[in-house]
Specification:
Two copies of one chain form a homodimer.
Chain A lengths: L4 H21 L6 H8 L3 H4 L6 H26 L6 H14 L1 H7 L3 H4 L2 H9 L3 H14 L9 H16 L7 H12 L6 H29 L1
Helix pairs in contact in A: 1-2, 1-4, 4-5, 4-8, 4-12, 5-11, 9-10, 9-12
The structure holds a DNA duplex.
Pfam family, one (chains A, B): TetR_N
Keywords (chains A, B): DNA-binding, Transcription, Transcription regulation
Protein name (chains A, B): Helix-turn-helix domain-containing protein
Chain lengths: 221, 221
DNA sequence: GTTTGACCAGGTTTCGTATTTGGTCATACG
DNA sequence: CGTATGACCAAATACGAAACCTGGTCAAAC
């Protein structure tokens, strides 16, 4: 099998298999052999891509997370107004709820993720948070965010709110979190013009963030 | 031992002992005999007060929760402005953080509460939520709360926010949640006069709520 | 009438064994 | 010659039986 193209393709197939099984049986009960069989390859081949079981499943989660961000970026590209914090929140909230694995990550669903959960944040957070704060500062500079507190503090509050909504059962309507975020973090008026001005840079920020994670994914391939 | 006064006193001693051990060793590792010994009574005596182990520890939690509400009521009586949603939130947030057992309840600290956690909400929620919604409706009627959404929906969002802040580690500053709640759920201006007008009824609501729980506690005594 | 601790069934822990599985690598294969 | 594989092994996990503990009861003591 020639390297290059096909290699990445096979990696994706393995991740597909792992994701499927992870969701159906949970981390604890999914073996590497199950994954290999479902991917139609030998067990040893899996280790040509990832150095151990944990890394493989973390890659599954990372890919899922990257896909969610890429969806978000697409939405922002299609409509610059999505750059607005409240709108972006609604879309990302919906995205996460629609992806069972991400939802499990937020809801501390130990049943499916098991011992992966603790490792998740260590693996996923490096400069992700920084990028988000930058995005908030960008909004603030354009009167699209409250400025009576530093963006870094608002980020803390924002994450608390998002987390609170995500763990609710059943999760509240997307419109409700959008509304809450709008009131809690946005100024009274949000200028459409400013949003359009901000969009390119915001899109770039998230694109870059997603690209970094993609890189890390492919490095493992 | 004559009934009446002394009986309640003994119940409190048992709860003290149970609370102490619960905090130090966790639910799973705290036995009824431990509790009895620490309370200076025989094991059988515990069952004169509660019909089983689970009920005893749920009572510990219920008492803790009642105490927090009573603290809150005292704060409202001392200063009617505490009736304001943002202020009340700050105080209650601080109260909960200061009470490790309540904090464990919100943070899903399975290590100390173990199998009690699932039962907690079933036990604690009956008309508690209703009272809170009533309080919100009271605020709304006096222009102390957003009115563009029904109080019941705001209550859902509010609980998500509160929960999100409580599970944070480390928990954000009390000022931050107060600020967030103020923006998210209060109208632009909050009238001091209206607050004073609302205070007696609000205090009554919470007092009643606490009294109901106290009753249930004492019924078990 | 109240309190108690011995008592017992049901549950949990322990510990040794059988089984499974993560990860390696010599071999087969293209 | 480089890639893929599955037999292989140590380590982890699952299992089962026996020992131990504990929740809850109740006859006896007070």
């Amino acid at each position: 099998m020639p390297p290059a193209e096909d290699r990445a393709e096979r990696a994706e197939r393995i991740l597909d298999a792992a994701a499927e099984l992870l969701l159906r049986a949970g981390y604890r009960r999914t073996t590497i052999e199950d994954v290999a069989e479902r991917a139609g390859i030998g067990k040893g081949t899996v280790y040509l891509h990832w150095k151990n079981r944990e890394d493989l499943f973390l890659a599954v989660l990372l890919r899922e997370s990257v896909r969610a961000i890429e969806d978000l970026v697409r939405a922002m590209e299609a409509d610059p107004l999505v750059t607005r914090l409240a709108t972006l929140t609604r879309i990302q909230y919906t995205n996460v709820l629609a992806r069972p694995l991400l939802r499990a990550g937020h809801a501390d669903d130990a049943g499916t993720l098991g011992k992966l959960l603790p490792k998740l944040h260590d693996q996923l957070d490096p400069r992700h948070d920084e990028a988000f704060v930058e995005y908030l500062e960008l909004l603030a500079a354009h009167d699209l965010l409250r400025t009576d507190r530093p963006a870094r503090e608002l980020a803390v509050a924002y994450r608390a709110v998002l987390h609170g909504f995500l763990v609710g059962s059943p999760p509240p309507e997307p419109a409700l979190i959008a509304d809450t975020v709008a009131h809690a973090f946005e100024p009274l008026a949000v200028s459409t013009t400013q949003l359009r001005a901000v969009a390119p840079r915001a899109i770039a920020l998230f694109t870059e963030s997603a690209a970094l994670d993609r890189k890390r994914l492919e490095r493992a391939y």
